[in-house]
Amino acid sequence: MKKVAVVTDSVACLTREIVRDYDIDIIPINFLAGGRTYRDWVDITPSEAYKLFLSDPDSFNTSAPSPKECFEAFQAAAKKAPNILCVTLSKKLSHVYDSAVDAVELAKTELPGVNIEVLDSTQATSSEGMIALAAARAAAEGKGLPEVKQAAARVMEKVKAIILLDTIKHVYRSGRIPKIASQMGSMLNIKPLLTVSQTVHFTGMAHSRKKGVERMLQMMRSNIGDLPACVAVTHAYALEEAEALKERILKEFNCKEIWLSEFSPVMGYACGTGTIGVSFYPDEAADAEE
């Protein structure tokens, strides 16, 4: 039995293969579509969810998992290790962190002898996933909980996420801008660029997808230059464009690792389909090995 099991939520946008290979347990986020509640990762695929979103975006809504649902993920993880690290999306963006903390209290009586710690990643999407993955890799190496937490913290310090929306139409749902401003921006075909740090920040806009992608890559270059980098490309019902972006990044950057995944459909609530994103951080360890 390994020393530490890692749990994260479905907004981390990890691929099925990563989750399987590193034995990560996932807390599914709930979303409502067409009057029915779905559990992300469990009841529906992201592509199926985005089809529902396109057919009736106004019926789409989200809700954080309950402490009971978090506890169920802890129960599964406790079968693998006596220590659990739960990495959540930023507590300023969701109540997942709070639900996980409440679930820890429940586990004190229901899972005696199991030590559980909850880590606020301060991120979301694949940048959160990269933090959870770093923790899971350390756990797979047989590291103890302090070392697993340190591995997560090292990535937390340097990971960045840039997200390009295809439309600003749905962003009013995040509470960041008024609905009328969102509708006007959509009419003007504005493509917002967002970053994530504690919460979501508007960092710029473009008037075409092509210019938006160029701005994303420019921001990447200014952060990592020629350093070896770990990269994740994520999309919401825009696979062809995401694959093209991944291939371009492979050609233009020194990638130690790159993977592609779908945005959790929970992201469709405010981002909409056509959204693409990139998360990345410089891997100094790889640089030192060279």
By CATH, the topology of the largest domain is: Hypothetical Protein Tm841, Chain: A,domain 3
What is the CATH C level class of the largest domain, in words?
Answer: Alpha Beta
Under the CATH scheme, the architecture of the largest domain is 2-Layer Sandwich
From N to C, what is the helix and strand string? EHEEEHEHEHEHHEHEEHEHEEH
Structural class: alpha/beta
Main β-sheet, in a few words? 6 strands, mixed
Unreliably modeled segments: 175-188, 286-290
Radius of gyration: 19 Å
Biggest sheet strand order reads: 10-9-8-13-11-12
Strand content: 25-35%
Counted by DSSP, the helix tally is: 10
The coarse overall form would be: globular
Through-space gap between termini = 34 Å
Query: How much helicity do the residues have?
Result: 40-55%
Rounded mean pLDDT is: 89
How many domain regions?
2
Count of strand segments:
13
Describe the 3D structure:
With 290 residues, the chain is of the alpha/beta class. It folds into 2 domains: 4-29 and 64-157, Rossmann fold (3-Layer(aba) Sandwich), CATH 3.40.50; 160-289, 2-Layer Sandwich (Hypothetical Protein Tm841, Chain: A,domain 3), CATH 3.30.1180.10. It contains 10 helices and 13 strands. The chain has helices spanning 16-21, 46-55, 67-78, 96-110, 125-140, 145-158, 179-187, 209-224, 239-252, 284-289; strands at residues 4-9, 25-27, 30-33, 36-39, 61-63, 83-88, 115-120, 160-164, 191-197, 199-206, 229-235, 255-262, 276-282. Strands 10-9-8-13-11-12 form a 6-stranded mixed sheet, with helices on both faces. Strand 6, helix 4 (96-110) and strand 7 (115-120) form a beta-alpha-beta unit. The longest helix is centred in the middle third of the chain and has 16 residues, at 125-140. It is globular, with a radius of gyration of 19 Å. It starts with a strand and ends with a helix. 47% of the residues are buried. Residues 175-188 and 286-290 have low confidence and may be disordered.
